[in-house]
């Protein structure tokens, strides 16, 4: 996730937080006896057996290794990941259900073509879908098909790029296309809005094709694409490197752009595990997305959240909670939060009202981490109290922390839009760590929190063990707190469709 300006909240100590002893959270999985209510303060958070968390990560890596290097939605690696998590939860005594939903699968019938056919002719190298190869461009998932040859027309480009990543507004509003020549190929720059928004606006302006190139700052120069999320795009849409975009932005370029694609519905699942005990009118939900992108095993994104939440769920099975616990492992997050959107949109009014809050855990162990807490002040009523609860966890351990924006880029978003209190922790994706954050958390300023974000190198070697340990404890702290309280954060009792979160930037950009 790119760094976005945010209010900074610092814990009791702002020194570098890299030396926390991992042994702090190690303890035998069976050390807490079954009891009514939660264990004493800090007992669960400080007794999670991290060997089990690492075992879960290693299993997800092994699954990817034996299923084509991926755990993406609709693949056998996705199925095997879900089977593993379900087996662990059933073994712990949970009632496990699968919620089926369809999503539009995508494939390329033939490799895409992009050629500069004006002066200084050039043929650009495509990256096939699901490939780990390097190249100049790739089709966006759910791109339409077409074979067009037309002039390139840049739309609101920022060249050279601004100093701050994720600042370009190219093609994000329909007004950007005022004066656009019908039939031209729109050249757009990655920025503050989704590729779907950009492509939709370009198609509405009668563009014959769309090329979206990476923004150009450090860490944002290679080919980057993003699913178009069932937007009804019928024209060719590709993502390109910054170098290609910069080349095509000069005047007089004519390009041939060809895509030959197919989208068809497929079925995947949300996995839901519920405690047998607890007040069914006060449901505490905690979730993590289970799928990876096609280009890798997805061990930090989001094996880390899955492993931490799974082990906390296993430990909470030894407790009789006051409130019912529901753990969710979402499908198709990387395709546009599809699983969590489906779940929330299909809640009955009664089930909606019964959910007291939702906690989201996505990328909790980035190698160049910062401890980030989702900004409750921008969420529904009750979200600020959740943020404060996470802050207390870090504060009593003398760990610094900062606020992360609610930008709609993970599975908390559908709950937030429905007026349900939300919260969570996060350690950063492809945003760039600042010098101030380096002073607080260590690591390296000027580099991405997770250089391997959405890349083949997101493997078990891409995990920061300190962050994994601390944030698994944060999950345990929050789940334990809300499982045992009689006083969940105040919330709206009805759907709140008027709540408008900040513009979505798509899943984990």
UniProtKB/TrEMBL annotation:
Signal peptide: 1-31
GO biological process: proteolysis
Keyword Transcription (UniProt): no
InterPro entries: M28_fam, M28_SGAP-like, PA_dom_sf, PA_domain, Peptidase_M28
Superkingdom of origin: Bacteria
Region spans: Disordered: 486-509
Keywords of the record: Aminopeptidase, Hydrolase, Metal-binding, Protease, Signal, Zinc
Residue ranges occupied by any Peptidase M28 domain in the UniProt entry: 270-477
Domain PA: 168-248
Kinase among keywords: no
GO molecular function annotations of the record: aminopeptidase activity; metal ion binding; metalloexopeptidase activity
Family, similarity comment: Belongs to the peptidase M28 family. M28A subfamily.
Protein name (record): M28 family metallopeptidase
Protein's organism: Nocardia pulmonis
